[in-house]
Each structure stands twice: as structure tokens, then as C-alpha cells.
Amino acid sequence: MHPSKPSRSGRTPIPRASNPDSVNAKSKERAFLVGLDYKKRPRPSPKGTSSRSDGARDGSSASASSKAPSIPEFSAEESLDELRSLAASAGAEIAGEFLQRRDKPDAATLVGKGKLEEIAGAAASVSADLILFDHDLTASQQRNIEKVVKTRVIDRTQLILDIFAKHARTREGQLQVEMAQLEYMLPRLSGRGVEMSQLGGGIGTRGPGETQLETDRRKIFRRVRHVKQQLENVRRIRAQQRQRRESAPVATVALVGYTNAGKSTLFNVITQAAVLESPRMFATLDPTTRAISLPSRREVLVSDTVGFIRNLPHTLVSAFRATLEELQHADLILHVSDASSPLSAEQDAQVEKVLKELEAESKPRLRVMNKIDLLSAAQRDSLRDDEATVYISATKGMGLSTLLDRVDKMLTGDALSRVKLRIPQDEGKALALLEAKSRIYSRRYKDGSVELEVEAPESVLRRMKQWVVEGRNSLA
Asked: Is 10 a domain residue?
């Protein structure tokens, strides 16, 4: 969670993905949260509510952008709730909160000098170690705020980057986080050193005229090139793995959704894997792929992916493209939503936004409404599955057979066919394959052979073609 601090020499250190155990090795830091709500005035006709009123609740979520956010949108209070969850995931203890409402952001300090003094006093009174802003800060805004509050200031993007660094376990995940951190740091180098004067300052120490800022930038650009090279190697290896998978008729299914929607729990239940399940945000960072057998006995690959979030930092989307581009090649996307969350519609809108950025919005998709066990009995009774939506509870195992049947029907690769076969009894390998990979509707032993009527994928039937006695009726 610590922002990059200048060393005594004025150099800004290059970030590395943090040790996930480092936060636990010391006591929790006390964080003071600052939420923001900018009231946008309607263009020709005002609605009659004062945008400066601190008690109003009809505004949009905090955003300094002039563009209208995707609808439906988070309110300022809901956005502050999410920041609270993010802070907890990063290992912070919430010391206090402050919600500022104003017409537009202050260019120098985001909240205005008067409010900033108020925030500084409130944070000092609860002995806060750092102040978390539910907004992205420019480099100058961050410096101006720190001068007044006299404590560390972290914006929303930096907090998310820290959580990603904390949860990155694989080398690939650590590289992707480091890339995002470097890209975040570059525009914020200015003013971060103790002084950005010429290198050296006395007789015999003067440099050739390069400033410390230029030296730091050069080092970071060099590191960026190195990390990009390694990430390109990751993308190349992933592409080769994908080609090998695509050469065999095995469909791929990707789980996507807002962070903490229950993707990992669902993944574990249907694949018998042991991916970390946690109520904390971004508990799953490194993608995992497992094979499962559908009711038709077809095998498919299921991938668990990183959760999305409102205003997911663009640097993260770019850095994780090597991982997230798997979505572009999936045969089916399962969009997992939290049916018990009052913000389900807003969260789904944010997932759609990221899928569009990844150019995966046109992929075949099934909406999986999870956590229905948290709804009342009356609410559960009113739920009805349809062609685009299935209601489940991954923790209670409710609706999972319906989900797998629906996935089976939606996948068109490796089509199912129903055929009659006559196989010699001594062909044990072929009979064992059918037992494992097909539905057997009838079986009769006659003259040293086994006559079977089966429903099987084309990949299996190709190996049985010499024993087919009656045509193939595609069932997919």
C-alpha cells in the first residue's frame, strides 16, 4: 500500500510486486477514507437540488471526467463502501471517513483548500497513517494534498495496484503487476525526489547536465522495456498453448464477473480445484484452467479469471492483456453476478464495459446469478431460469446441474451425435472409451460383438467409425 517514496539521494525506486506476507508481518495501517461526489448540473433546466448540499444523495459517483459514466452508476456512498472493502483487502484498518460534495473538482487539491484542512484535522485526530482518496489523483494534486495533510496520500488506482501486487503469486502475475506499477509511476516522477536539480551539487560531483528526474525516467523506461519483453514471451507461450488446444476439439469456457461475485467458489465446485476462495476483493489474481466433463461426457476447459471492478485502471487492463485475451478465444463466457447484491446491475454494467474494451462483448454468453442462498425464500421462489440466465448457489450446490446442462447445449464445438455401433468384444480399449466419454442408451451382446446405441462427441466417434452400423444424427 505504500506509495513510492524518494530515497535520501532523491531517487525514486523502481517498484516490484510486493511480498504478500509483508503486510501481515507488521500491524495494520490506519487508513482515513475520503469519498467524493461531484454534482453535475443539468444543462438547460436544473432539477432544483443544490449540488453543494452536503446532505443530498441524488448525485452520481465520484468522477472528475466530463463524460457521463455508464448507466446504471454507483452513488457516492456506494463507491465509498467499495473503497472500504478495497482498503480491507489491502490489509488496512479503517480509522475514519469523510464524504465531500461539491459542484466540480478543485484543480489543485481536488476537494478545495478549506475542506482539505478539515480532512487533515480529522485524520490527525484518529492517528491515521495514510489517507485514501476514492478518486484518481494527478501528480500535482497528490503533492499539494500531502503538503497540507502531512501524511501519505494514496489514490484509488494506487490502492488497487497494491492489492494486485499483494495477491500476485506466479511470475507472470508479478510481471503484469510490475508493468502496471511502472506505467502508473512514470507521469508521477516529477517532484518526487528531494530535489530535481542537476546531478551532483559540488566541486568534483557535477554531472553532464542530466537531472535526477531524467535519470529516474531513463531507468524506468529501461525496466519497462525489459518487463514488456518478458510479457511478450508470456503472450507467445500462451498463443502456442492455445494453438495446441485448438488443434484438439476441446471447447473453452471462461468465468468473468465483478470482484467477489463468487467465481472462484463456482470454479472450485465444478472442477474440484482448490483455488483460493475469499470474501476479500481480488483474492484470485493468477488465472487457473481445469478440464471438466459435461453431462454429455464432452470434456471442456474452464478458466477462472481476475475479477473486474468499477474504473479498473487502464494500466492494469493493458498489463493483464496477456491473461485477459484468453476471453477473446473462449467458446463461451459465463458472466457470474452476485444475485444478493443491491448493486448487481451497476456491477454488471462495469463488467460489460471491460469486455467491450477487450473486444469480447460479442462472444456467446450465459449470465450466472450466484449467491441465491442469501436471498429470502420468497425471492428465491420468484426466480426463473431462461435461455440467457441461470440462478445458482455455488456454496450450497443449488442449480449447478441446470448450469452444466445449459453450458452443454450452448457449446457447438465437438458436436454430439447419436449412433448405433457393433464392436468386437475383444476391443476393450474402444469399449472403455465409450464407457467414459459417451452416453450409452442400449447395450446387447451378440455373436462375439457388443451392439450399442450411444450419444457421443464427434472426437470420440471418429475413432469408432469402422464400427458404425447406423447413421449419425447431430444433436448439437
From this structure: no
